[in-house]
Design brief:
The protein is α+β, with helices and mostly antiparallel strands. The protein contains 3 helices and 4 strands. Strands 2-3-1-4 form a 4-stranded antiparallel sheet.
């Protein structure tokens, strides 16, 4: 399980301040959501993060909140519960 968590979390980059979370839940559904997202939004990257007890699908890599907000407008059309997050905020 620890190896799976390390593999999933390796997609996080330190310099990106903002990401968009489009889903949280079980691993099977997370994989389906991420695959569908990548087919529709081919210019944005995405990853699955494990955060006990669920998996989260994070997409995009934004340097500013304004950049994230611009993408969020289009993403919310398909994923209405999408939210902007700051993964490295402590």
């Amino acid at each position: 399980m620890l190896q799976e968590k390390r593999k999933n979390n390796s997609g996080i980059t330190i310099n990106d301040k903002f990401k968009i979370q489009i889903f949280f839940g079980n691993i099977e559904e997370s994989k389906k959501i991420l695959l569908a997202f990548k087919k529709e939004f081919i210019l944005l990257d995405g990853t699955i993060i494990f955060s006990n007890p669920s998996y989260k699908v994070w997409v995009g890599s934004f340097k500013s909140k304004i950049e994230a907000e611009k993408s969020l407008i289009n993403i919310k059309k398909k994923y209405p519960s999408a939210v902007i997050i700051e993964p490295n905020k402590k």
